[in-house]
Amino acid sequence: DDCLTQRMMSHPQLYIPGQLNLYFSKKAFFKCAIHSCYSSLVLFFIPYAALHDTLREDGKDAADYQSFALLTQTCLLFAVSIQLGLEMSYWTAVNTFFVLGSLAMYFVVTFTMYSNGMFLILPAAFPFIGTARNSLNQPNVWLTIILTSILCVLPVVTYRFLLIQLCPTINDKVRQARATPPPPPRRTRIRRTSSRRSGYAFSHTQGYGDLVTSGRFLRRPAVVSWSPGFPPVGRATSGFSPMGRSAGYSPTGRPQSSKVPDVEATSLQMYRAIKDPPL
Amino acid sequence: MGKAKDRTGPLARRPDNSAFKQQRLPAWSPMLTANTVLPFFYLLALMCLLLGVWLLLTVQSTQELKLDYTDLGSCSECYELRKNVSYAEQGCRCKVEFYIDQTFKGDVFFYYGLRNFHQNLRRYMDSRDDAQTVGRESQLKNPSTYCEPFIKDKDGVPIAPCGAVANSMFNDSFSFNYQTSSGHIMPVPLLRKGLTWYTDKNIKFRNPKTGNQTLAQVFEGTRQPLYWQKPVYDLDPSDPTNNGFINEDLIVWMREAAFPNFKKLYGILNRAGDPFTHGLPKGNYSIQISYNFPVQPFQGRKLVVLTTLTWFGGQNLFLPIAYLVTSSLILLMAVVLTVAWWKFGKDGKNMKE
């Protein structure tokens, strides 16, 4: 996803974090350890305090050992799943299925292990019978789970957001640039004299013959203005990006020869096009 | 590059050019931008605040009374008596009085509480035999070795129910009395059934099959745990269906508590007759206690707890207060982030390459 060949070639600064060992160093490990300590304390003490002196709605036991264990486990699962969701940069159908699926699987396995059938087969091995049914229908159990998830995940979100605002890394900048394309070019830039803004000048690469012949550029939405005579600014890139990759898919784009309709040029290419001096 | 190629030659083993195999699936790429994060934080702070206030009001509407009777009044003599194990066979009764100044409206639940009794100790929790208490014939006279040393008595007769958990069952009993305004003392009727989880009473604990024998005959060849005064088939003389392993007090005790300070349900107020139809009226009450359970060896305390309940449970103020605190923390963070965004990140100032 962020090792897209295209992007790495056009933004060599993306190699810097690897060279400086930014993401796997003692400092990174220490931050990780702090986060783990904090999460562990939250995941134990919040369920402890919430269950400490509590009862079910019908007066029966709610603060027993098995309910406490189940509550702590469930809090952990939810906190971890939400954290995982935050870490995922690209939510494809497959990713979403597996994350939500593991959460669902946890409940399936829990209810199976705590069911009557398993207990009657091997009583000594499945002593938690009935705990899931009796504990997870209590509103204060779910309120505890929500509170724990909030307390575990929000510090991470805060920290990341602050970091993006105060000192964004090259990865953040590139992602931001991809997501919010810069404003469209000014319409007065119709200078027929500089027709060599197009990639045609760089004939040592494959060029855009197929693009022109396919007429694909004609179907582009009206973000970019162009005048007849030379291709839209969006296609004008340096010769180092011979393949027209699209922005909407991850991580590799479309190969250049297949005819996919209605795809805007990479916003990155448009970005670069503005910056390049006329050739 | 397309699909139209033959499957021979140097490019024969190339994977299909499908979206799935070339990792080109449509994806949503969430980003932490200001216009998603900041409203989310403010909204979350508001919701936590509302939730906290609502829960606080709910919890405040419960009423609770806790009475530590370990050495209160005449029970101090029983406390001294129970310090000496040789007098364990000797009964001791004491009386404790209390006053309720505001009527307990609705259903009232009676609990006995213990402090500093670690039912969550691992070796203690292992010392039970679930196969025996589910009524398996093979385990009745041959309990699991996990119950050691509470498995056989000195004559080699197996114990039913075996293990330390059953052996240490709480055996104080209470009878509550209410003094009416005319000075007449009347007993407070308690329902002593319906105290357990449905799954515990009906599935986890079952008596061995009786057939045409009485329960006492089924348990022949076993004996009661060493600390008990009555055998397991005679725990409740007033109700024959509440004997054996399915006795409600036994089941309630066998569900080990998570923490050293806990309370377990003893009874529910029977609101069938006057003056208890609306709850516990205010006035003077007294409890006659049959004091058996010794707590001095582990520096514990014994309590009686009376409480009313709501959908949220009893009087546990932690969750409402935690929600209110969380809400204010989130609001503080949201303000800090807004300031950071305004000064540094607005309009992409920090994104210059």
UniProtKB/TrEMBL annotation, chain A:
Residues 186-195 have a biased composition (Basic residues). One of its GO terms (molecular function) is metal ion binding. The keyword Transmembrane applies. It is a multi-pass membrane protein. GO terms for biological process: Golgi organization; phospholipid translocation. Residues 175-202, 237-279 are annotated as: Disordered. One of its GO terms (cellular component) is trans-Golgi network. It is found in: Membrane. Coiled coil: none annotated. InterPro entries: ATPase_P-typ_TM_dom_sf, P_typ_ATPase_c. Keywords: Magnesium, Membrane, Metal-binding, Transmembrane, Transmembrane helix. The chain crosses the membrane at residues 28-48, 68-86, 98-121, 141-163. Residues 6-168 form the P-type ATPase C-terminal domain. PANTHER family: PHOSPHOLIPID-TRANSPORTING ATPASE FETA, PROBABLE PHOSPHOLIPID-TRANSPORTING ATPASE. This is P-type ATPase C-terminal domain-containing protein. It comes from Cyprinodon variegatus (Sheepshead minnow).
From TrEMBL, chain B:
Belongs to the CDC50/LEM3 family. The lineage of its organism: Eukaryota, Metazoa, Chordata, Craniata, Vertebrata. GO terms for biological process: phospholipid translocation. It comes from the Eukaryota. It is found in: Membrane. InterPro entries: CDC50/LEM3_fam. Keywords: Membrane, Transmembrane, Transmembrane helix. One of its GO terms (cellular component) is Golgi apparatus. The chain crosses the membrane at residues 37-57, 321-342. Pfam families: CDC50 (PF03381). This is Cell cycle control protein.
